[in-house]
Amino acid sequence: MALDILVVICIGIGLLAIGLGVVGILRFPDVYTRLHAETKMTTLGAIFICLAVILTEGGVYLATKDVGHIILMLHTLLALAALGFTNALSAHAIGRAAYRSGIRPELSVVDRLKEVKSDD
Amino acid sequence: MIRYLLTFICAFCTYLVLTAGSGEIGLWSAFEIGAGVIIALVVAAASTKWFCPSTDYRMANPLRWILLGIYICIPFFLEIIRANIDVAIRIITGNINPGIVKVNPGLKTGFGQLIFASSVTLTPGTLTLEANEKTGAFYIHMLSVPQDMVKKKTVDAADIFSYFKIHEWVRRIAE
C-alpha cells in the first residue's frame, strides 16, 4: 500500500515536470531558453517515471520472487543511463549548432562567447 | 593488447547485463555466456580504436566507477532536483535573465571535460554551448545570470552549482 502511494507520487512528479517543460517551450522567447525547458524538464520527468517502474517491479519481485522483474529493473536503469547521456549531448549539439548558424540569444544580459568568436 | 582486453571486458559485461536471468549458472545459461564471449571478441576487435583510444588506463580502476555512481546518485541528483524547482518557478513566473558566461574549471582530461559538460547540461538552467579543449574553458548559457556574474570575465565553477563543488567531484573521478 505504501509502495503504491510512492509509485503514484513518482508518476505525479514526472508528469508535472514534463507538463511544465511543455509550458516552458511555449513561453520562452528563443531557442536557447526553450532548450532549457525542453531537454532538462523532460529528463527529470523520465527519471521519476522510470523510478516508478523500478519501484513497481521491486514490489512485484518481493511478492512473487520471479527473477524476471529484477531484469526489467536492470533494463530500466540502462535505458535511464542512455537517456541521460543522449539528452545532454543532443541539447549541447542543438545549442552549439544554433550558435554557429548565427542565431544570437535574445534578451541576453551577457555574451562571453561572442567576444571570443569576434576575435577569431 | 590491454586496450583490446578492456574493450572486451566492457562489451562482455554489457552483454551479461542485457541477458541476465537466462539460466542457472549465476543468472546466465551456458549458451548465453558462450555467445557473449564470441560477440564481445568481435565487438572489441571492431571498436577498440575509438572506445579506448589512449594508453592512459586510469579509468580502468573500478574505484573511479564506484565514485561516479555515488556522484550521480547523491550530489548530481540533488542538484538536478534543486535546479528543476528553480526552472519550474521561472517557467511559471516568466522571470528570466538569460546570458552566456565563461567558466574554467581547470579540467585537463577529455573524459573529465565530458562529465563536467554533461553535468552542466543536465542541470536545468545551465547549458553548455561551446567547449575549448585546449584551455579547458566552457561557455555556458544560463537561464538566469545573477547580477554579480554579469561583470566577471570568468565565473568560478563553484558558482554555477549551488550545494556541491561539482568540478571537484569530477576531478576526483576522472583525473
Please outline the major beta sheet of chain A: none
Number of domains of chain B: 2
Tally of DSSP β-strands of chain B: 3
Helix content range of chain B: 55-70%
Number of helices, where a helix is a run of at least 4 consecutive DSSP H or I residues of chain B: 7
Low-confidence segments of chain A, ≥5 residues, pLDDT <50? none
Radius of gyration of CA atoms of chain A, rounded to a whole number: 20 Å
- State mean pLDDT of chain B (0 to 100 scale): 82
- Spatial strand arrangement across the major sheet of chain B: 1-3-2
The helix-strand sequence of chain B is: HHHEHEEHHH
What is the chain-wise order of helices and strands of chain A?
Answer: HHHH
Strand content of chain A: under 5%
Proportion of helical residues of chain A: over 70%
The global form of chain A is: elongated
Class by alpha and beta content of chain A: mainly alpha
Distance between the termini of chain A: 62 Å
Task: Please state the overall shape of chain B, judged from the principal axes of the Cα atoms.
Answer: elongated
Tell me which oligomeric state these chains represent. heterodimer
The N- to C-terminal Cα distance of chain B equals 23 Å
